[in-house]
Amino acid sequence: MLKFMSFGSGSSGNCYYIATDKDALLIDVGVGLRSLKKHCREYGIQLHTVHHILITHDHADHIKSVGSLSYELSLPVYATEAVHQGIDRNYCVTRKIADKLKHIVIKNTCIKLGDFSVTPFDVPHDSTDNVGYYIEADGQSICIITDAGCITQEMCEYINRANHLVIEANHDIEMLNHGPYPQYLKDRIMSDNGHLSNTSCGNAIVENMSENLKNIWLCHLSEENNHPELARKTVEAILRSHGVIAGVDVRLEVLRRTLPTGVFELQLSEQQ
Question: Tens of pLDDT along 155-177?
Answer without folding.
Answer: 999 999 999 999 999 999 999 99
